[in-house]
Design brief:
The structure is a single chain. The protein is an alpha/beta fold. It has 2 domains: 5-238, Aldolase class I (TIM Barrel, Alpha-Beta Barrel); 246-306, Orthogonal Bundle (Arc Repressor Mutant, subunit A), CATH 1.10.10.10. The chain has helices at 53-65, 87-95, 114-118, 135-142, 150-163, 182-195, 219-228, 246-261, 266-273, 277-289; strands at residues 5-11, 15-21, 72-76, 102-105, 125-127, 167-173, 199-203, 233-235, 293-298, 301-306. It has an 8-stranded mixed beta sheet, sandwiched between helices. The chain has a two-stranded antiparallel sheet with strand order 9-10. Bound molecules: iron/sulfur cluster. Iron/sulfur cluster is lined by residues 28, 30-32, 35, 37, 40, 79-80, 107.
Length: 308
């Protein structure tokens, strides 16, 4: 199979999702403290032809032929997918042969540009993020490219919601002690009211993140936060509740077999098994949820090892 698709993988937000990788690791305009892909070496806002559109579309077509119908085809990637100059052409190319709903997983930071919003025409669902109630917290949690401001991002999301005909599900990622105070949540709620998304999905760190030792708030506080974010807010269900496909399970067993032999970092698993990093993250999380493996911190590296 080609280099641009992975899965279908079990997604906490989208069920069985066929991922489409539109940018190389790790191309992003943010450097979020909670990023599961590790630190961004250098943030960028330059939109470029990072991958060849026709090859990506052909890869999706072939992958769809060989797998059960996914719930979504998700434009995402090892960074921020809207940095691909013509990501809309990938969506319209897939639309020519598939009626599987098309989603875009994005930080939403570039929607203040009309041409980026216009690329969303062929999509059914856009899933942007908004994690901060003020500029200082935005800088602290998302560590954006210079020139991106919270107000600019919010204005872009308001415009997207007005123009885009599909669904908009806004993710709010809560990190305990960073954006979890009543004051922050109250301000985020003001943005939610302005943007008016169809859903608000509350997330928190459950996987290894760019900065170690981050955690989500205790469960009862997370529920309070969810209530404060309004009637459309929901907490994203744990990954363990998402059923794995037969294909994903096979890969999960391979990950476990490797970890039974030796403790590995995520990169070790990616290299060792030759599967996509995002797919490895899903399997590692499922194995952690099932208590089949455990995480161990050694100096600056996170290792995974078989439990028991
Ligand atoms: S926007 Fe996404 S890919 Fe970029 S740093 Fe944040 S979490 Fe990572």
């Amino acid at each position: 199979m080609g280099d641009y698709t992975y899965g279908p993988v079990p997604s906490r937000r989208l069920g069985r999702s066929l991922g489409v990788d539109l940018v190389p690791l790790k191309t992003c305009n943010f450097n979020c403290i909670y990023c599961q892909l590790g630190p961004t070496p250098q943030t960028t806002v330059e939109r470029r032809d990072y991958v060849p559109v026709e090859a990506v579309v052909e890869d999706v077509r072939r992958r769809l032929e060989g797998c059960p119908r996914p719930d979504y085809i998700t434009l995402a990637g090892s960074g921020e997918p809207t940095l691909l100059s013509h990501f809309g052409e990938v969506a319209s190319g897939i639309r020519r042969f598939s009626d599987v709903p098309l989603a875009l997983l994005t930080n939403g930071a570039l929607f203040f540009r009309p041409e980026v919003r216009a690329e969303c025409d062929a999509l059914d669902l856009v899933l942007p993020s908004l994690d901060a109630g003020d500029e200082e917290t935005f800088q602290r949690i998302n560590r954006p490219h210079p020139g991106l401001t919270l107000e600019k991002v919010a204005e872009g999301l308001v415009a997207l919601r007005e123009e885009f005909e599909g669904q908009v599900w806004l993710e709010v990622f809560i990190v305990d002690g960073v954006n979890s105070s009543d004051q922050q949540i109250g301000r985020i709620r003001s943005f939610v009211d302005r943007i008016d998304p169809h859903r608000v999905q509350v997330n928190n760190p459950v996987r290894p993140t760019a900065e170690a030792f981050l955690s989500g708030p205790p469960s009862d506080r997370l529920h309070e936060i969810c209530a404060m974010l309004g009637p459309r807010a929901e907490i994203i269900a744990p990954a363990a509740t998402v059923e794995l496909t037969a294909d994903a399970t096979a890969h999960k067993e391979e990950v476990l077999a490797l970890l039974l032999r030796r403790p590995c970092t995520l990169e070790d698993i990616v290299t060792g098994l030759g599967i996509h990093r995002n797919e490895v993250i899903k399997h590692v999380q499922a194995l952690l949820d099932a208590d089949a493996i455990r995480r161990r911190q050694r100096l600056y590296e996170t290792y995974y090892e078989a439990a028991g």
